[in-house]
Amino acid sequence: MNPLVSVIIPSYKRPEAFVKRAVDSALGQTYQNIEVVVVDDNPPGSPSREALGRLLETYRADPRVRAVINPENLGGSEARNEGVKAAKGEYLAFLDDDDEFLPGKVEAQLGMMLRDGLDMTFSDYKLVDDSGRVMDYREFSDIPAFDRESLFKYHMLRHMTATTTFMYRAEALKRIGGFQRAATGQEYYLMMRTIEQGLKIGYLPGEHSIAHYHSEGRISSGPGKVKGENALYQFKKGYFGRLTPAERRFVRFRHWAVLTVVYLRDKKPLQMLGAAAMMCLTSPGDVAREGTRFLKGRRRG
Q: Which of 181, 212, 243 is the last residue of a domain?
């Protein structure tokens, strides 16, 4: 029971130091039977492609590291799908090029999947800034049950993400079609399909990944993030018939809360105040409850 695990790292316009941190965190796992598939999604001839090529050259002597060179920039979803096609592993893990795995991540997650016969697992993670300060800690220990409807409702309200925490059986991921193209929230849509198509999902408690928030073009800020969040909200509205009035209200509240944070990070005070006002008007009670929840998670992280 020593299956190959492929860690897929798509890369686009990322500083070499960030990509190196990601690759090294995959290579430094306590579980050794892995391959690291780096997908170069930079435009041909660009400085970013040249820089990534130089970095990958330093790993030439390590047979565990493989490169996939896209003929053009395909975007995050398709870049991950190209990595899936090239991967040789029976199990697949995903790592963003500016994030990192903690050393026991693959071993703990794979062990759980093998023991319980799971198709997919995810875990907690923390978000830190450039100085190492914890900005948020995302945990999912309050999932009430793991039947399909319970997971669906929890995901609608709280988002069982991010990609860096995911591990799939390769066959199961391919069966549901992999990642779909989206401006943001690719992992949200994938998890929704994972739930709706009946894959066997498990949750591994504890922090196993670190996501880094920084100014180097992370997708969680900027106009693309706003557009993506609006599209995601419209997608969720298609499921409102399966939610109670209180659950629908929470989804609306969460949408405005996320936009408040996006505008704050983008230094757009007027838009931020408008989104914050809508958040408070939508559900004043959730403002207090979720603020307390956020602060508790941050302290834990």
A: 212
Q: Domain limits at 188?
A: 5-212
Distances (CA, A) of 291 to 141, 273, 294, 296: 18, 17, 5, 9
E strand segments, 150-262: 167-169, 201-212
pLDDT digit string, tens, across residues 232-276 = 999 999 999 999 999 999 999 999 999 999 999 889 999 999 999
Distance from C-alpha of 60 to C-alpha of 57, rounded to nearest angstrom: 5
**CATH code of 171's domain:** 3.90.550.10
pLDDT tens by residue, 182-223: 878 899 999 999 999 999 999 999 999 999 987 665 545 567
Q: Copy the structure tokens of residue 215.
A: 């100014």
pLDDT digits (tens, 9 = 90+) for 96-109: 999 999 999 999 99
| Whether residues 103 and 19 fall in one domain | yes
Q: Are 247 and 203 in contact (CB under 8 A)?
A: no
Q: Six-digit token pair at 179? A: 């990642």
Banded pLDDT at 83 (limits 50, 70, 90): very high
